[in-house]
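Q: Given only this backbone (231 positions), what sequence would you predict?
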């Protein structure tokens, strides 16, 4: 059975109270009994709360056996030092194992270029974080000067029209792009853009899509639980 990765990207949403309410509503999964791995990417401020929640789960579900992992939504392109406002890889690694890099919202609103994305990928690898590198077109992969092992990264294909629009790409098109990405890189490919519990299976059942990156629908614990179950 193929391994399916389900990543929830909370973007710039939720206070600590709201995160606690979400955790009460979300069903935990034990990795021993599922082929699904779940990564929650909250804002930086909530990583400690989610990490302590996962550590304090009852024995048998806690720690490495939980199917739930944590990820950050961004990483400093620099090491620790005089970079006001930045959170570096060493700091993220205290709480998380993954980091989303080059999301189209960062490219659009924060001027993130392929050069910065390259630097961030290097920082993630250096700090043993798995980068989830977002691209909206296949050319963006060709532009990235990846100097790393393919096995160290995950590619998230997210077409711009599908992000937050309620109109997902067709599974046929996403599958074709995932297949093409895999001719360039031997890395897992996930699809993102208006994924819900209703359409998730149409993506995860294709041969080349290894999971999904979920934005809006991950904010609701019940809907996210449904997505995990349907995937
Ligand atoms: P969406 O966002 O699921 O709300 O479309 C996906 C993403 O931007 O990662």
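A: Predicted residues:
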């Amino acid at each position: 059975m193929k391994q399916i990765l389900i990543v929830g990207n909370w973007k710039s949403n939720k206070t600590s109270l709201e995160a606690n309410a979400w955790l009460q509503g979300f069903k935990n999964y034990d990795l021993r009994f599922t082929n699904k791995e779940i990564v929650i990417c909250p804002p930086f401020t909530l990583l400690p709360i989610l990490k302590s929640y996962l550590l304090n789960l009852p024995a048998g579900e806690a720690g490495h056996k939980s199917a739930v992992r944590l990820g950050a939504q961004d990483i400093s392109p620099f090491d620790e030092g005089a970079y006001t406002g930045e959170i570096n890889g060493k700091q993220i690694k205290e709480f998380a194992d993954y980091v989303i890099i080059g999301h189209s919202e960062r490219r659009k609103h924060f001027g993130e270029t392929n050069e910065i994305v390259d630097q961030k990928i290097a920082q993630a690898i250096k700090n043993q974080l798995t980068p989830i590198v977002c691209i909206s077109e296949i050319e963006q992969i060709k532009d990235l000067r990846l100097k790393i092992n393919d096995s160290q990264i995950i590619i998230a294909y997210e077409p711009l029209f599908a992000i937050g629009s309620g109109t997902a790409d067709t599974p046929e098109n996403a599958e074709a792009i995932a297949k093409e990405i895999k001719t360039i890189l031997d890395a897992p490919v996930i699809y993102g853009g208006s994924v819900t519990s209703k359409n998730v299976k149409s993506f995860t059942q294709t041969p080349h899509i290894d999971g999904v990156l979920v934005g809006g629908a991950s904010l609701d614990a019940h809907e996210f639980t449904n997505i995990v179950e349907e995937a």
